[in-house]
Amino acid sequence: MSDGNWVVADFGDDGRWRNGIAFAQKMERLDFGDTIKLLANRHGIASAEQVDSMFAPKFSSSDAKPDQPNGHWEFEYLDEVPESWLKILFADKVWAYIEYKYRNVAGEAERKEEVLKELREILLKQHWHALSSYTMIKDRKATKIESAEYYPIFCIEETTRKGDKDVTFRKIYQPKAAKKKNRFFYNGDFDPKFLHGLMQAEKMFQELQDEKAAEEPTEKKDDDDNEVKLEEIIYCTGGSDALNLSALGYYAVYPASEYFRMDPRLLKKLFSLAKNVYTCPDLDETGQRQNFKLCMDPEDERYLDIKVVELPAALQEHRDNYDRPCKDVRDYLKYYKAKDFRNLVKSAREFRFWDMHKAMDKNGSVKMKFGRPVYEYKLSNERVYKFLQRNGFYRHMISDDVEEFIHISGNLVQVVKAPAIKGFLVDFLRERFFPEELINLVHRSPQLNEASFSALDTIDLNFTDYEKTEQYMFFKNGTWRIDTNGIEVLKPADVKRKVWESKILPWSPTKLPPMFTITQDKETGDFDIEIHNQECLFFRFLINTSRIFWRKEFEDNLVGKSQEEQDEYHQAHRFDIAGPNLADHEIRIQKMHLMNKIYAIGYLMHRYKNPSRPWCVFSMDDKKSEDGLSHGGSGKSIFGKAVSYFKTTVNFDGRDNDLFKDKHVFERVNRQTDLLIFDDAGKYFAFERLFSIITGDLVVNPKGKSHITLTFNETGKMLISTNFTPTELSPTVLRRLLFTGFSDFYHVSNNGEYNETHQPFNDFNKNLFDDFTPNEWNLFINFMAQCCQAFLVHEKIEAPMENMNARNLQSVMGVSFLMWAESYFSEESGRRDAFVPVHVALEDYKRECGVKMITTQGFNQKVKAFAQLKNLINGPKELLNKDGRIAKYYDALEFDNRNKKWFRPGNKKTTNFYYLQTPGKELTENICDPTKGDEPPLPSVPEEQYDF
């Protein structure tokens, strides 16, 4: 440019020339002052202190003067509002609109001056004045706050009538206050019912009347077409919005405080001044709720005639100065043009969904009935749909080709049918006592049917009641949010989550203090639990199902005690996880079982699925079974039932061996399913069929419908309860399971193994859950929520696995193999710590146990399980070849079925061997020779005969 400044224009955009600051302001989407601050910091133009001083007020304090009383305020005004302040108040597109008005003014400086002049006049008309400072006198101290170049302070002065006199109050507005709560405050005789801008609208209305009166009179018509009013009045939420709309040529009003209410008298006044009354609510939940309350106010029918200017939801994708989603008119005019807002005004619709006019007879006269005019009514489809949507009715897509009607009330969502939607309209009119003719019109209207309601907008709702570190629980009386810090009871206005009506839990609980505390030693990693309150019956149940050493505590360690002493101990420690009759290590094991169950419950209560923790809870008996059989009755099903009270659950019969042969097995599972329970799974339950579902997607194939794929996150968590163990505990299985072990504290007496049958009813004298009192339900709800909180706090808490591993290994082997192996590989047999030919051992097992069919691979698995159970090393690393086998080039051995003995045919061959090593014992070269009967093993063979 001629003055040495550089400018840039983007002719692919608006083609306007901009200097560096204006260009940065456009690109960074910042206010003028914030852009200056950004550039100064980015390019080191000034020190941080210098830059900050431009954006913060200056505070000073001194002793009050003798004539300055406490409570006194003093104001110092600026003669002219600085340009930098105007840049802060008025949005970018408002500047562009005003600048365009003066495009024909010659000279850039002259055009700029006209723009500034108009904006300053707008402030003056709205009673806004610029302050250089204000001073407050308190406790004989005078505190002075001074404005800065980019820290404006405005004083809005208003006069209101109180009693028989006019009084003045001031609103001090600091738009750049660091904290939102400090942006404005009042001074003087404040009127919370005051409506800013009304005085200006009344003045303009009167000017229109005076102009009309000066014109030639015209013929008066019944419909008052000759009445002169303002085109519109827009009711805004704040002064900043009102200023920007005033700059665009609208008459805007805004309330003095949050306690303001648009009463019918004032509403009538607005309609008397303007042809149309609009609201332009903020996009946040509070703004939308307050606007709905206003337009649906039943006190006066005219509230329904307020037209609502709806800002686009996309505006909230931008952030304001406080890093919150943009929500109001000023934010809108930062990104959208003035003509865009005019289009919003054109498309604004009122809540009234019908039109009415006086009925005319064939002579053109108004029809009368009972001395009153008769009205005709006509529905507006567009406004019917808009009214329904404003009252929460939408379409919701279940799948690409299936939809349903829903109703949203607050955060509650329910599925509705078309007749219910029409019924809502009828009920609304009846409750407001509208004329029978209008209600009959709704009844008879062919437009209000299922096909017509398909014109309702679709809405995509997020029903997730969780985040990675939090879980929501929705009750009839409120909502609980659970996170790592604890449990918070939320007010309805603070609940941002939508929830299906079917998922509202049917209780009204009261939050209770923590019933337990789980801690972890930072050095050792060991967990511990402190129990504060065990009144919850289910908590007591979990304690008892974790008492692995109950027989030792209640039977063995009470031998020699009198019956009275035994009864006294039983009564004192009925629900004690750390009874004094146990050793410290036994108490620690029981506590780990209890904490593991609490953790597993918390895992199931938290709906979020973490890809790094894709577990299926596997509940099984902890008792080491000597016979390898299933006993049950330990309470595992109650564990799953407890969680199902809080989570949408689909149950499967785990005893059905053909369960997964049904291609529709998962047809009851959908996106609302939180938990899949496979109860009482049998010995041969096909657990591997769930592998891909636990860590991946689930394909649901409903009968007669298209299949649906639920993603990993959409698929509920899983719980398996069983009296048996998994058929294997490979790493693939282990990383998918979260084991919970149940003691046999609760048991059924079979074959005299126990002195008596003992079930939960014996402890509580009632059925868990079914017979709960309101107080017991409250305790139970709090306990389950606290379990969820414990899960969010801690890493994986595993159950002690010794007994469960033993049961699994016994299951893999089977009782007959275990009895055979304990004899065949005993220390006395000479086959431990020695080389045993695989085919020799296999043949012996088949003959001794009457087994006709078993593969070498299956036999190897049993030998491996036996070695693990007995803590033996199955194949020391030093002996293994590259294939992981022990192989020697050795004399061939064959079995003579007729004579039932082994013999050597005379040749040599590569033979596979077992070697079960006792830990700590040195390797030997002994090879068991079955041709010698019970004779000791043969001496070793030369090393060169090994098949490495």
List the helices and strands and how they pair.
Blueprint: E1 8-9, E2 17-18, H1 20-28, H2 32-43, H3 48-54, E3 58-63, E4 73-77, H4 83-89, H5 92-101, H6 108-125, E5 128-138, E6 141-146, E7 154-162, E8 165-173, E9 184-188, E10 195-196, H7 198-214, E11 230-235, H8 239-247, E12 251-255, H9 264-273, E13 274-279, H10 285-295, E14 307-308, H11 329-335, H12 338-346, E15 349-350, E16 354-358, E17 368-369, E18 372-373, E19 375-379, H13 381-390, E20 393-399, E21 402-409, E22 412-416, H14 418-431, H15 436-444, H16 450-453, E23 466-467, E24 470-475, E25 478-483, E26 486-490, E27 499-500, E28 516-520, E29 527-531, H17 537-545, H18 550-554, H19 563-572, H20 584-605, E30 616-621, H21 636-644, E31 649-653, E32 675-681, H22 691-695, E33 698-700, E34 708-710, E35 717-722, H23 731-734, E36 737-742, H24 760-764, H25 774-793, H26 802-813, H27 815-824, E37 836-837, H28 838-849, H29 856-869, E38 873-874, E39 887-891, E40 894-896, E41 901-903, E42 908-914, E43 916-917
Parallel strand pairs: 11-12, 11-13, 13-14, 22-27, 30-35, 30-36, 31-32, 32-35
Antiparallel strand pairs: 1-2, 3-6, 4-5, 5-6, 5-7, 7-8, 8-9, 10-12, 14-15, 16-19, 17-18, 20-21, 21-22, 23-24, 24-25, 25-26, 28-29, 33-34, 37-42, 38-43, 39-42, 40-41
Helix pairs in contact: 1-2, 14-15, 20-25, 26-29, 27-28
Protein name: Primase-helicase family protein
Region (Disordered): 929-948
Organism: Olivibacter jilunii
